[in-house]
Amino acid sequence: MKPIVFFRKFHKWLGLIIGIQVLFWAAGGFVMTFFDIEEVRGEHTMAQPVAFSLDDGQVSITANQALQQIDFAPESITLKGLLGKPVWVATNKEQQAIVDATTGKKLSPLDKSLARQVALADFSGQGELAELTLLSEELGEVRGKGLPIWQAQFNDSDNTRVYISPYNGEVVARRNDTWRVFDFFWMLHIMDYKNRTDFNHPLVVFAAFLALFMTLSGLYLVIKVVFLKRKRTSTPKT
C-alpha cells in the first residue's frame, strides 16, 4: 500500500473516532473564553466584606478562653472577622469551630439566622434571598466543599446560589446559571464526566494522543498532495 493511501485511510478513521471530541474541545474553548470568569464565579454579585477593627477593644476573649468552648484539639486558632465582628476560628484537619471573640459564645455550627446574615452580607446583586437550606447530601456544583452546607438561593436573573460552611462561617462557593453552562462545557472539554475536576486522566490523554496523530496525518496529506504535487507539476519536462 502506498504511503499516501495509508495516511488517507488513517486520517479518515481517526477523524471518525476522535472528530466529535475535537468538536467538543473547540466548543468548550469557545465557551470558556466567551464568558467573563468573574461572572462565572459569581464575583460580580459579591459584596465587599465588612471590615472589623481591633482598635476599640472588641476582643475581650483570649485564644485560650476560646479553646475552652470547643470539644476537639485544634492545630491552629485564628482571629478573623465575621459580619464585621471578631471571632476565633479553631481548625484541625477534620474539624472547625467559631467562637465569638467578644462574648466567648460558640457560634458553630451556624444556625439559620446567622447563615442568613452571612448570605445577605455577601450578596450585592439585584435580587432577594428566596430560600435558605441546610444541605446534607452533596450537590455536583459544590463537590468537595464538605457537608452539611448552607445553600442560599437568590431570585436574581442568574439564579445566584451562595454556599456557606456552618463550621467556619465562610462563603465557600458562589454558583449561578452561567456557571452551570460553563461547567457543562468544562466537563466535555476535560472528559471527566463524573467529578469534572481531573484534566489528566487516561481517557483525555488517549484522546489527545489520537487527535495529535490525526493532525500529523492531515499535515502529511497537505504537504504531499498540495505542495509536493504542485512542485512536480511545475517542473518543466526536458
UniProtKB/TrEMBL annotation:
InterPro entries linked to this entry: PepSY, PepSY-ass_TM
Name the record gives this protein: PepSY-associated TM helix
Pfam families with a match to the protein in the record: PepSY, PepSY_TM
Domain of life: Bacteria
Ranges that cross the membrane: 12-35, 203-227
Keywords: Membrane, Transmembrane, Transmembrane helix
Residue span(s) of domain PepSY: 110-173
Organism for this UniProt entry: Kangiella koreensis (strain DSM 16069 / JCM 12317 / KCTC 12182 / SW-125)
